[in-house]
Amino acid sequence: MHNLRKPITAKPPPLPVKKRRLASVTRLVFIGLFGLGLLVGTTAWLTRSTSKLMYETPEAVPEAEAALVLGTSNRTRSGGVNLYFKYRMDAAAALYLTGKVRYLLLSGDHRKDNYNEPGMMRKALRERGVPNRAMKEDGAGLRTLDSVVRAQKVFGIEKMVIVSQRQHLFRALYIAKHEKIMAYGLVAQTPTVTRPTWIRQTAREALARIRVFLDLYLWREKPNLNRNL
Length: 229
Description:
With 229 residues, this protein is of the alpha/beta class. Helices cover 47% and strands 13% of the residues. The protein has one domain (49-218): Rossmann fold, CATH 3.40.50.
């Protein structure tokens, strides 16, 4: 019998170091350009779709059943006053006191006993003259998507005014529009921040905008619709 041996297949020689580096750089450039294009595209689409739904003053906002106040911590990481929180509370209180909405839905994170964004908001709004009876809390508003969808599906609000800073409202109003919820935005004042903080916040918002499109059109992610977490 003859010994049958498998033919030896010669492996292609590895690419020279310079060519491997060039290929890696090319991939990185392609990924970077793709990400930049995705960011520019989502930003342009969000802005074009929602900018006409935003109002600068409570007096200019159309009347609605309720206002959805989007939560954040009342303190910064360093322990100082979070001006994003303060200005949202100022805007929400002014909106209610003008009589444009019947009540405020305070939506934020309350997964832990020692961290309660809706509770922080209630306390701040009471200090601004909003009565307890005019506020409801949603402690399962962990993300903007959760807050907006739950306002309709859990609390039954079909027409609302969303209160937050302008850059945040683009996302919130787009989600509302996608879910066929009639919503307007009241623009809360945006604080002046340091350049490093601005860069960090801008980067985080950019990623959040891309995430909105992935959630709505690719992953089709749905929020928890239980009354409480």
